Amino acid sequence: MATTATASASWEELTLKVKWIGNEYTVRVCADDTVGELKRRICELTNVLPLRQKLLYPKLGSKLNDDSLFLSQLPLNSSLKMTMIGTTEEDLLVDPVESPEILDDLELPKDEAVDIKDMEVNKLKLNRRIHHFKIELQNSCRQGKKLLVLDIDYTLFDHRSTAENPLQLMRPYLHEFLTSVYSEYDIMIWSATSMKWIKVKMEQLGVLDNPNYKITALLDHMAMITVQTSSRGVFDCKPLGLIWAKFPEFYNASNTIMFDDLRRNFVMNPQNGLTIKPFRKAHANRDSDQELVKLTQYLLAIAELDDLSNLEHNNWELFTEDNTKRRRH
């Protein structure tokens, strides 16, 4: 009973007041949310990105600077009023804010990876995201097509290098890749950045208006959730369950695959994730990178299968080699 009572308390909804440039906003969060999730909710109301926010409240001191801290660890109540300092991207005449680069990616034991997606607290966070987030379709979902979800940074684009023309930082064969797989897959782009900069990047690369393929939807950092792990603490990820819940007649675990250079991003759906080799140092690697050529072969080879979640996507190169040998014989 004590455990149940504790769990119920951690999921209790809190209503907080946040002041920003003379306006007061009502923010609803749960005790099992993190400070980072609180900032994401504030962003929904103000369009100030979490990384641009500084939250002030005398009684909490510097604790509001720790995005991984759970709200249940803070003395919060519904009468609390805090101040937010921050500026929207539209009001800044600088480049978009960059997240700290994640060099040490998540490596979880298989058993723990399964536990994460099955944890009740993480399921509840996903359900809340499904309830609050709306996916705006760029183009209609197509009946009978599988779904490919693509990251941007280091997957399609080297966002850390500099160049006079963004096309110099685009991963080789990007348009050929998207054109080929579009015959079998609907394509969604999901990045941990803001929607404004997703659109800017995709427009610069000529992805949004290409006549040979269409992008079904764009998802940004607001669609992500914060999950808890016993060994790696708290971090954000991209739960595919959000897409499946929004479009159940089109997409599910059996017909979806996600490419990302960070394994942590598909920790809620490890059976659907493929860790792509990061595309870094574009100027040095542009002439030798063949990742999208090889992955085109893999996606077309598995498109005929009924259930993609039964595959070991980490062994995708072996699958492609075996499939090539079978065709030769």
From TrEMBL:
Enzyme class: hydrolase
Residues in FCP1 homology domain copies: 141-302
GO cellular component, one term: nucleus
Keyword flag ATP-binding: no
Species of provenance: Glycine soja
GO biological process: regulation of proteasome assembly
Keywords attached to this entry: Hydrolase, Magnesium, Metal-binding, Nucleus, Protein phosphatase
Pfam families: NIF (PF03031), ubiquitin (PF00240)
Primary localization class, coarse: nucleus
Gene3D superfamilies, sorted: HAD superfamily/HAD-like, Phosphatidylinositol 3-kinase Catalytic Subunit, Chain A, domain 1
Enzyme Commission code(s) on record: 3.1.3.16
Listed cofactors: Mg(2+)
GO molecular function, one term: protein serine/threonine phosphatase activity
The name this protein goes by in its record: protein-serine/threonine phosphatase
Keyword Metal-binding: yes
Domain Ubiquitin-like: 14-85
InterPro entries listed in its UniProt record: FCP1_dom (IPR004274), HAD-like_sf (IPR036412), HAD-SF_hydro_IIID (IPR011943), HAD_sf (IPR023214), Ubiquitin-like_dom (IPR000626), Ubiquitin-like_domsf (IPR029071), UBLCP1 (IPR051658)
Chemical reaction(s) catalysed: O-phospho-L-seryl-[protein] + H2O = L-seryl-[protein] + phosphate; O-phospho-L-threonyl-[protein] + H2O = L-threonyl-[protein] + phosphate
Subcellular location(s) of the protein: Nucleus
